Amino acid sequence: MAEKTERIGFLGFGQMGSAIAEGLAEFSPDVKDGTLRMAAWAPHGDKLKKRIEDGGLPVEICSSPRELAETSDWILLAMKPDQLAGAAEGIRDLLTGKRVISVVNAVRLERLREILGDDPRIQYVLPNTPMKVGAGVALFEEETGLTEDELARAKRWFSSIAEVVVLPGEKIAAAASLSGCAPAFFFMAAEALGDAGVKHGLKRADAYRLAAAVMSGAGSLLAEELKAGAHPGALKDAVCSPGGTTIRGVSSLESDGFRSAWIKAVDATLG
Ligand SMILES: NC(=O)c1ccc[n+]([C@@H]2O[C@H](COP(=O)([O-])OP(=O)(O)OC[C@H]3O[C@@H](n4cnc5c(N)ncnc54)[C@H](OP(=O)(O)O)[C@@H]3O)[C@@H](O)[C@H]2O)c1
Fold first, then answer.
1. Is residue 147 lining ligand 1, measured as CB closer than 6 Å?
2. Mind listing the pLDDT tens digit for each residue in 76-131?
3. Of 57, 72, 139, 219, which sits most exposed with the smallest number of CB within 10 A?
4. β-pair partners for 163
5. Final residue of a domain: which of 119, 137, 167?
6. How far is the CA of 122 from the centre of ligand 1 (A)?
7. What does the angle CA 253 – CA 246 – CA 180 come to, to the nearest 5 degrees?
8. CA–CA gap between residue 189 and residue 187 (Å, rounded)
9. Ligand 1: distance of its center to the CA of 52 in Å?
10. For residue 137, how far is its CA from the centre of ligand 1 (angstroms)?
11. Is residue 1 in some structural domain?
């Protein structure tokens, strides 16, 4: 039996909302076969229209948050935390029986219920922007207001653009530091490798391409090997031959406090 078509309405369509929509448009079989349709509303209509047109996104524009709430089966809240309560106020009476996914950072289910009421069935998901290219991480809070069937659908949509990880609410902040903040650390590492490549005569563009390919290749290899129970340290050992060049680089990173710098960076994100 063909699945019912559902519409997901993005309330807020900035960096994160558009990254999710771009990823779904490109990678979600449900969007491709038309069983998941997308709509959006944001306060600055011109900006919203430009974003959708520039990305060639299959996203319908709603004329108001109320139209979006009335015409959508699912509402995806993607505005800043301090904008959430105000935005919710305007549509609260329309949420009975609706499904809500909130990606608003650090506002977990219990607080979402205080803001939105008990009527909608709610899920807190913490995404990251690599979803745009189908390679994100979606942290699902374990406690959910969705039914089993709805949760399965939400996970299926996010699985098409992300690694879905379900965690107790109190663990999400630490995980978000790795999935949401660490991309910036990797971009810094790529920039530094770019400088190193240029220092040793490579063109900057080539050095960045190498850095990106190495990061994504190492990430894919690690993900695959973890399934077989491997340890990241073992993968590092496997590319360090005795007395070779790589172990000299590893030793240099160690003497510059590489590991503790990363651990301290995560500490810093958690305040
Ligand atoms: N960016 C990330 O990497 C990331 C990662 C995890 C979670 N998040 C969470 O995702 C949410 C959005 O972040 P972002 O980076 O996408 O921010 P952003 O780029 O500033 O986008 C915010 C969006 O919310 C809209 N907005 C403002 N007031 C609104 C209202 N009253 N009702 C509906 N929409 C409203 C803005 O519209 P206008 O532009 O028209 O004003 C804009 O489209 C935040 O809660 C953030 O914590 C972001």
1. no
2. 999 999 999 999 999 999 999 999 999 999 999 999 999 999 888 999 999 999 99
3. 219
4. 137
5. 167
6. 18
7. 50
8. 5
9. 15
10. 18
11. no
